[in-house]
Design goal:
This protein has 210 residues and is an alpha+beta fold. The chain has helices at 54-65, 158-168, and strands spanning 33-38, 43-48, 76-78, 82-85, 98-99, 119-122, 135-138, 151-155, 185-191, 202-203. The strands form 2 sheets. The chain has an 8-stranded antiparallel sheet. It has a two-stranded antiparallel sheet with strand order 5-10.
């Protein structure tokens, strides 16, 4: 089933070697930095918010550093709104073979990250716990997405926003599918500063994956 770019991703627990932080378990953990390098050589850098969406970040780190995203397309571009990728089928129907719980307010999970310009956030279907591998990046600011999608990071600099704007400016058809050669991801890698991340996953057998 085609996945709506609504969001999902929760389930608290990464296997982080965290020493003795009980009340704020991620307080001493530096935010990871993700670099999305496009096929044209441009790059976008994102600070990932491990305090706000720990399991969503863990899931993204695992997929990115395993090479899952390498070679995938930005198959959806909504001018002035968002760009979307992360689907191995490059059409909105694919996933990573599992889902994760949605780390956002409407799903009962606190997440202070807001959907400002340059925010990277998880896609989902209409059900809350259907996020998997697909993500979107906001070209504009859309506070109405807060509480509905699991925002988990933000672009770090003007060069990243410039690359995002160029990506969002490609010609599209009436279905917001890029016309001609679709923009591709060369690689996504995440600097974790020595911390290890393992996400909690939901078996797909009982869920319609996003």
């Amino acid at each position: 089933m085609k996945k709506l770019c609504a969001l999902a991703a929760l389930v608290l627990l990464l296997a982080l070697a965290l020493g003795g932080c009980a009340k704020t378990p991620f307080a001493s953990v530096p935010n990871p930095v993700a670099t999305i390098t496009l096929a044209d050589g441009s790059a976008m850098r994102f600070e990932l918010f491990v305090q706000d969406a720990p399991n969503t970040v863990a899931n993204f780190v695992e997929l990115a550093n395993s090479g899952f995203y390498d070679g995938l397309e930005f198959f959806r571009v909504v001018p002035g709104v968002l760009v979307q990728s992360g689907d191995p089928n490059n059409d909105g129907t694919g996933n990573a073979g599992y889902t994760i719980q949605g780390e956002f307010g409407d799903n009962g999970i606190g997440n202070a990250a807001t959907h400002d310009r340059g925010t990277i956030s998880m896609c989902r279907q209409s059900k809350y716990d259907t996020g998997s591998s697909q993500f979107f990046i906001l070209v504009g600011s859309f506070p109405e997405y807060d509480g509905q999608y699991a925002a988990f990071g933000r672009a770090m600099d003007q060069d990243s926003l410039n690359a995002l704007d160029a990506l969002a400016g490609v010609p599209v058809d009436g279905s917001f599918t890029p016309v001609g050669n679709r923009p591709k991801i060369r690689s996504i890698r995440v600097e974790t500063y020595g911390y290890s991340y393992t996400s909690a996953k939901i078996d797909l057998s009982a869920e319609d994956a996003a």
